[in-house]
Amino acid sequence: MKVLICGAGQVGFGIAQRLSAEQNDVTVLDNSSELIQSISDSLDVQGFVGHGAHPGDLQRAGAEEADMIIAVTSIDEINMVACQVAHSLFNIPTKIARIRAQSYLSPQWQDLFTRDNMPIDVIISPEIAVGESVLRQLAVPGAFETISFADDLITVLGVTCEEDCPIIDTPLKQLTELFPDLVAVVVGISRDGKLFVPHSDDEMHAGDDVYIIADSAQIERTLAIFGHQEQQAHRIIIAGGGNIGNYVATRLEQRQSRTKVKIIESDRKRAIEIADQVSRTVVLHGDALDPEIMREAGMADAETFVALTNQDQVNILACIMAKRMGSARTLSLVSNSDFSSMIRSVGIDGFISPRGITISKILQHVRRGRIRAVHSIQNGLAEVLEAEALETSSLIGKPLSEAELPDGMRIGGIVRDGKVLIPDGKLQIIKGDRIVIFALAEQVKVVEQIFRVSLEFF
Predict the structure, then answer these.
(1) In 10 A of CB 116, how many CB atoms?
(2) Phi, psi of 333, rounded to the nearest 5 degrees
(3) Is the C-alpha dihedral spanning 332, 336, 337, 343 positive or negative?
(4) Exposure string (b/e) for 347-366, b if CB count within 10 Å is 16 or more?
(5) Is 457 exposed, middle or buried (0-12, 13-18, 19+ CB in 10 A)?
(6) Is the dihedral of CA 76, 80, 85, 86 positive or negative?
(7) What is the mean pLDDT of residues 408-431?
(8) 3-state DSSP call for residue 428?
(9) H helices within 213-290, ranges in order?
(10) Where in the chain is the domain with CATH 3.30.70.1450?
(11) What spatial distance separates the first Cα and last Cα of the chain, rounded to whole Å?
(12) Contact assessment for residue 413 and residue 420, using Cβ atoms and an 8 Å cutoff
């Protein structure tokens, strides 16, 4: 696939890195010669210096042969015009744009992004996607990662096995015998920096990070079995009153009347703006790294501290301070993937990666076959994919035990007629089933080929 990416910032770099590693023909266009030099030196991609919305620059970057354009510059209007030019002049089939300003996404303007007006096939709104990810983590405090699939019927949980976890050192096959009615499957284990798909004889050890695909109705029970019975927080402090922080606070006010939220915002003008928009949230003007502001916010009694500023270093340090001052749990926004690997080692309970979320949204439209959703795990070490089975599927009509599935992947859940089924060896997939799969990065292409051939007409 020939992919043209407009924007060589952190998100553009991450997308280019992922797609080029999968042998796609990737070209990156940006008006910064330094960024283009950096991405050309680091990745197997073509780089061009130019304006993402200028027809001549797009043509020079190969727009006439592109199968997809992904516009992720820092300016919404450039992204929008790039997609319009890509459609009107170069007839690029798939057009994806990152749009951050919520005013463009208001329901009253829902006809704006249509083929007859501004032909953008996929809109990526990082603030909303990241905000919803934060809210999911707040709702499931025992997990360090929470992802929803199949209209929220299935949830993927990332859970750490502590020393007191009651099921460590137990073969996975025995879990089915111990909990026969539990609709949950362990699909991935991260141990000593290595992520693998376990077999039935494998055991979980203390310190393992475990990925579980579960029926959303059984989240609390699943977490309890893994030794996590943390209560949902009702005293929350947010550092950073940007679009994401404001979104989270507003939604918490709407969804949880008992929750008390405080926001720490360093910009006085922005703090006043937020105070005018929220009703019950307390807004404090100050620096999240100032111990006096932390104490004034009541950090000693906070159940969860969430750092959502636009600076990774501030978020990480603020979480460390919050933990030392008494916050029971901390969550940090981390844009730089180099920092994400160290988050857990410094005592931060969970993190949210805007770049990872954006890349996952885009991968959904890059993957072949009837793929309905994709989420990248651990900076691309694995993926969780949701696929829909059509009548041509080679998996239909025989037990899963007879399916020739490659090592390094596992089917974790199947939704049929609104009900979540556990994928045991006797189960047979039928037309219309929605299948949630965990696959290691090296097996994603193999899995994609299996589902491309069997799950969609070409």
Answers:
(1) 6
(2) -80, 130
(3) negative
(4) ebbbbbbbbbbbbbbbbeeb
(5) exposed
(6) positive
(7) 91
(8) strand
(9) 219-225, 243-255, 268-277
(10) 357-455
(11) 16
(12) yes
Fold annotation for 357-455: Alpha-Beta Plaits (3.30.70)
Decide if pLDDT at 64 tops 80: yes
**Cβ proximity of 33 and 105 under 8 Å:** no
| Contacts (Cβ under 8 Å, ≥6 apart) of 25 | 1, 2, 3
Q: How many CA atoms lie within 13 A of 162 on its CB side?
A: 12
Helix axes 354-366, 126-139, angle to 10 degrees: 110
Count of helix runs (H) and strand runs (E) in the chain: 14, 22
The Cα 372–Cα 438 span in angstroms is 14
Contact 291, 298 (CB under 8 A): no
Two tokens, residue 430: 């039928």
Q: Which two tokens stand for residue 415?
A: 């939704």
- Ranges for all domains in the chain classified under CATH 3.40.50.720: 2-124, 235-328
Residue 207 has which token pair? 């310190």
Architecture (CATH level 2) of domain 235-328: 3-Layer(aba) Sandwich (3.40)
What own/partner pairs with CB < 8 Å and gap ≥ 24 does 389-393 have? 389/429, 389/430, 389/431, 389/432, 389/433, 389/434, 389/435, 389/454, 389/455, 390/431, 390/455, 390/456, 390/457, 391/431, 392/454, 392/455, 392/456, 392/457, 393/429, 393/431, 393/454, 393/455
Are the C-beta atoms of residues 344 and 329 closer than 8 Å to each other? no
Q: Which fold has domain 2-124?
A: Rossmann fold (3.40.50)
Give the model confidence (pLDDT) of 99-109 as tens digits: 988 788 877 77
152 C-beta neighbours (distance < 10 Å), count: 9
Residues 6+ apart with CB under 8 A from 262: 236, 237, 238, 281, 282, 283, 284, 297, 298
Q: What is the pLDDT of residue 125?
A: 86
Mark 236-253 as b/e (b = at least 16 C-beta within 10 Å).
bbbbbbbbbbbbbbbbbe
- What is the identity of the amino acid at 152? D
**Cα–Cα distance, 85 to 434 (Å, whole number):** 36
Q: What are the structure tokens assigned to 62, written together? A: 């190969």
pLDDT average, residue stretch 73-79: 94
CB atoms within 10 A of CB 121: 17
Residue 84 has which token pair?
Answer: 């319009």
Contact assessment for residue 364 and residue 23, using Cβ atoms and an 8 Å cutoff: no
**Backbone φ and ψ of 52, nearest 5°:** -65, -20
Average pLDDT over residues 4-24: 90
